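Write out the 3D structure for:
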Amino acid sequence: MAFFAKAFAIPNLMLLRDTFSKFPAKYSATVMKTILLIAFVHVTTIALSQSEIVKFKVPTSVSAAKGYSHSAVIDLGTCQMIVLAGQVPIDKEGNLVGKGDLAKQTEQVFLNIKNILSESGATMNDLIKLGIYMTDVSQLQSLRTVRDRFVNTQKPPVSTLVQVSKLFRDDVMIEIEATAIVPKK
């Protein structure tokens, strides 16, 4: 019972158990079922309320997502966390930008990130994390040159860079995931 009281934050669950323990033994199965039912209802209520905490978005400023959301906005109380799916160098019309040119592809990716953040009320200064996937890290300086035009270089977001053998298309050279935190106004 202590597990349920802690795990489901029901401070009165232990009180319920103590109260029910005063019933004769023949009622113990009923008591246990009642306690488990209360815990189940509480967990179900938490799960249903989470649908209000997380909002999945498909912004209109980038190409239409097929089978996924471009971002999720999570209500953290005093602020919101915006988690972006990996962005690729595809423009609003669905066309690849910068075939064979990492700098142009990177610029389009950061424009997509900027547009998605803007539609959620955030700016590039709100970025806290970037996850960068490149097919050729020998072109890192090209990435850095473009990135530095978009992020706060005095307080840059934490970043991870991974070289991959291939992304979802042969002509895509870079994909970037992003996370931002925006204080509520």
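The first helix runs from residue 2 to 7.
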